[in-house]
Amino acid sequence: MTRIVCVGITVLDRIWYLDELPKEGGKYVAKDYTEVGGGPAATAAVAAAKLGAKVDFIGRVGDDDTGARLLTELESLGVNTRYTRIIKGARSSQSAVMVDASGERVIANYPSPDLPAEADWLQDIDFSQWDIVLADVRWHDGAKQAFTLARLQGVQTLLDADVTPQDIAELIALSDHAAFSAPGLQRLTQMDNPIDALKKAQTLTNGHVYVTQGREGCYWLENDELCHQPGFTVEVVDTTGAGDVFHGALAVSLGQQEPSRDAVRFASAVAALKCTKPGGRAGIPDCDQTRSFLSLFV
Q: Which of 56, 109, 155, 268 has the fewest CB atoms within 10 Å, counting from its CB?
């Protein structure tokens, strides 16, 4: 069984479903509403667990009702939270998410300022117990500490390189695999062309670099060759969490030592299937469902 640890943030997503995303100030009526755990590393952890991996989540929550709810949900979905730190007197992080009829979404994240950024306490954890370490960029110090410790143990590292205010160049340098969102890659490189930007990002690491492009699929570099996995066509209901699920599935495949092409194809299929149901986690398929879906494209 593949052993994975996901390091980063967990948040409570409050999701409103509307016919159209607001284009100006005013009052709007939602067609539906739900609340579910979210956050890049946490949702990636859920995806990896659904796909059969043994998964730990390392992060920080407050000792409020939201924090307890987030950890309870992760445990119920097969993710071990034994290493997550509960901060006394702190509020947990939350996000407001609006989703339109085509599945596109807008997210406003509130990262709780009560959760300490320092991550020295990760030094007390044995990272050699995992096959791969995945980290998001929303807890920069946690990602840096986890990747440093993982590399000392010869453990693979995978970075969810999304948008963040901080410079993530040092995290990319510590990554065996850096999988960018299109906005994250553009922010890092200040380049609009994703292919040129990917080549620039490659100069920052000896590892592999990837960029997801939504319906256009995923591009990555392998031995300086540009590779492409087209997006899978599905009936999209909600794209919330698609990138996070992609990273979780990619971690599973890479942890199993799958070639990059197979790993990206598998992760792309898992992310596509997730988009067929509302919320960031409800549509995550298991391995059998994913293989069955992929068999349609042989």
A: 109
**Is CATH 3.40.1190.20 what the domain over 3-22+30-113+130-285 is classified as, yes or no?**
yes
**What are the extents of the domains in the chain?**
3-22+30-113+130-285
Q: What is the pLDDT of residues 209-248, one digit of tens each?
A: 999 998 899 999 998 899 999 999 999 988 888 999 999 9
Query: What pLDDT, in 10s, does the model give residues 34-56?
Result: 898 999 999 999 999 999 999 99
Spell out the SS3 assignment of the chain.
CCEEEEECCCEEEEEEECCCCCCCCCCCCCCEEEEEEECHHHHHHHHHHHCCCEEEEECEEECCHHHHHHHHHHHHCCEECCCCEEECCCCCEEEEEEECCCCCEEEEEECCCCCCCCCHHHHHCCHHHCCEEEEECCCHHHHHHHHHHHHHCCCEEEEEECCCCCCCHHHHHCCCEEEEEHHHHHHHHCCCCHHHHHHHHHCCCCCEEEEECHHHCEEEEECCEEEEECCCCCCCCCCCCHHHHHHHHHHHHHHCCCCHHHHHHHHHHHHHHHCCCCCCCCCCCCHHHHHHHHHHHC
